[in-house]
């Protein structure tokens, strides 16, 4: 039977009307989506090619490390101290009492004069005039030399913790704070100083729980003021006090680290002479120094303190030790 002309015309129209759907299926697009020409132009009804999947591996962030944090550290001239009960609260304390240097030049200051230029120069004049009016020892004993550069008012002291030297005395609390600051450190608080003195075993004395005569350089047999001036209560800025020798011929003030029995133990390390040798200023603007010096008759170890002097007071017994936060 011959086909009707209108049927031949209708079939192509049906095929043309479904071409969008068939192309979508072939290209992988969901059926029913509307194809659009690419932005740059192209045959109408033809979809742009799908981007190819990247062959690079996914970057997965690493898991947090389970390694413990690095152990706290102190500079080589300091000792690590902590709270014995918790093993926390770390900080650093000078291993030895401080000697002082000029911050600008590094020259060591005479430990027998104040570490303040103007004051040292003034006292040199005072004691040059006063010399020869005391005991036979005082009359025969020359003043220690004071370098000219140490008399300069612009002098800025810096604390140095070093073994085997005469520690700096004649320092005020103000001098100590400045010297520690120049070294990148600070004066210890009362709590920090006392904890460091008591050692890891938390005892009243660096070496134990009860006073033992002679273990630390304290409660000396003689007083330099008696030998020089027949009076232990006067002339405490005399620069010769710490040069006086005791009955056995040894200097009353010892070198730093010179009393190895008087150590506050912390792990495998130790802090020297926190009791005896020199008193040590702490961070108290009202004025407090601690530990007792070689001729002070105190038998209370790490609890020894003096609070009846101002922040600017200084004499032959007052020295410095610094603290610092851990690195």
Would you kindly provide a written description of the structure presented here, covering whatever features stand out?
- This protein has 327 residues and is of the alpha+beta class.
- It has one domain (78-324).
- Helix content is 20%, strand content 14%.
- The protein has helices spanning 5-17, 19-27, 117-130, 136-140, 173-182, 190-198, 224-229, and strands at residues 78-83, 88-94, 98-102, 157-161, 186-187, 263-266, 269-272, 279-281, 289-290, 305-306, 318-319, 322-324.
- The chain has a four-stranded antiparallel sheet, sandwiched between helices.
- A hairpin with a 2-residue loop joins β6 (263-266) and β7.
- It is globular.
> Whole-Å distance between the termini?
104 Å
**What is the subunit organization of this protein?**
single chain
Rounded to an integer in angstroms, the radius of gyration calculated over CA atoms is 41 Å
User: Approximately how much helix is present in the residues?
Assistant: 10-25%
- Structural category is alpha+beta
Beta-strand content bin: 5-15%
Strand order of the largest sheet: 1-2-12-5
Largest sheet: 4 strands, antiparallel
* Structural domain tally: 1
* Total E-strand runs: 12
Tally of helical runs = 7
Low-confidence stretches: 1-43
Shape descriptor: globular
Mean pLDDT: 86
Order of helices and strands: HHEEEHHEHEHHEEEEEEE
């Amino acid at each position: 039977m011959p086909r009707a002309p209108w049927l031949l015309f209708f079939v192509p129209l049906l095929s043309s009307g479904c071409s969008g759907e068939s192309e979508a299926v072939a290209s992988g697009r969901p059926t029913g989506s509307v194809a659009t020409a690419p932005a740059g132009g192209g045959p109408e009804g033809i979809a742009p090619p799908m981007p190819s999947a990247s062959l690079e591996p996914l970057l997965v962030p690493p898991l947090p490390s389970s390694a413990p944090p690095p152990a706290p550290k102190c500079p080589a001239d300091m000792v690590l101290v902590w709270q014995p009960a918790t093993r926390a609260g770390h900080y650093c304390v000078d291993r030895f009492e401080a000697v002082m240097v000029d911050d600008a030049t590094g020259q060591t200051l005479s430990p027998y004069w104040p570490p303040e230029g103007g004051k040292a120069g003034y006292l040199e004049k005072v004691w040059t005039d006063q010399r020869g009016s005391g005991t036979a020892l005082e009359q025969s004993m020359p003043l220690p030399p004071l370098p000219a550069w140490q008399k300069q008012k612009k002098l800025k002291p810096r604390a140095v913790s070093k073994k085997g030297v005469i520690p700096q005395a004649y320092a005020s609390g103000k001098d100590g704070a400045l010297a520690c600051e120049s070294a990148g450190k600070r004066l210890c608080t009362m709590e920090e100083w006392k904890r460091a003195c008591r050692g890891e075993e938390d005892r009243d004395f660096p070496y134990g729980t009860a006073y033992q005569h002679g273990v630390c350089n304290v409660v000396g047999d003689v007083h330099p003021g008696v030998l020089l001036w027949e009076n232990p209560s006067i002339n405490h800025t005399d620069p010769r006090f710490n040069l006086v020798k005791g009955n056995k011929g040894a200097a009353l003030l010892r070198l730093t680290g010179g009393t190895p029995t008087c150590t506050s133990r912390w792990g495998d390390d130790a802090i020297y002479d926190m009791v005896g040798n020199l008193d040590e200023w702490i961070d108290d603007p009202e004025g407090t120094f601690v530990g007792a010096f070689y001729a002070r008759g105190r038998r209370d170890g790490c609890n020894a303190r003096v609070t009846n002097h101002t922040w600017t007071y200084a004499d032959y017994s007052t020295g410095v030790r610094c603290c610092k936060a851990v690195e």
